[in-house]
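Supplementary Note 3. Input sequence used for the single-chain structure prediction.
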Amino acid sequence: MLPPLRALVAFEAVARLGSIGAAARELHVTQAAVSQQLKSLEQFLDCALFERSQRGVMLTASAQQYLPAVTGSLHHLKLQTELLFGKQQPDVLRVKVNHSIGHNWLIPKLKDFTEKFPFIRLDLSLVDWPSREPCIDADVEITNGYLESESTRAERLFEEQWLMVCSPAFKQSHAEQLVKGDIASLPAIQVKGYEESWMQWLAHNQRLPEVPNIQLELSNSLHGLEAVKQGIGMMLVRSLVAERDLLSGSVVTAIDGSMPSESGHYLITANKRDAKVNFFCDWLHKQT
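The predicted structure, written as discrete structure tokens, is reproduced below.
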């Protein structure tokens, strides 16, 4: 048998608040209406639920046993209604991420995060440069380098290598020069803002200090890799950013060799993290 829902709501409110008047105010009905609902429930159950006195109402022993079941059922019904019919607003996590690492590394992994944490909605912004004031308008930032701040903390995410890459067609067309390391006359693509230089890469790999002809400058590696695929020239790029394109064969190493990256991608958050940030950061570290 199922008791009337309105009567159960009135019973839970009176039991929780300890007063018919307080329950009436919370439910936006009259005290008489609440009393009528309690009476109808007692009649339905054929059992007294409250002992009334001048000081208010007290639950009978039977009501004390019944209350947990009613409270749990109403809470479950409310929660399921919110989940199924969109009344519950998901917690929004604002993330800023560097264009290249966002497109080539983070976004391909996000399906796993959304399945594990469906109650968090991601607000993802792709940026070229670290914020001047980290985490002012974002909960998490993943950027190429970072600006120090007393209110934030930064953790380096990866150990990366610098590689010299080009398209397969470019490598085939300039095979002889690339094998010899004679790259001074070859076209190249430069990404702005990197601290490491062509000269450093060449010296580290014991190559002649002959810098290629920079014909195109771009603001991020994502666009640089697209230019590489079009055969415009060679480019120095971090291994993690180029990983997917190297695996697919759309770009290849122009000259064998690598150089450890001194700069890197950092995870930046406020010193004090809330739950949604901790969920994301813990998940992120498991991906690295």
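The longest helix spans residues 61-85. The chain has a mean pLDDT of 88.
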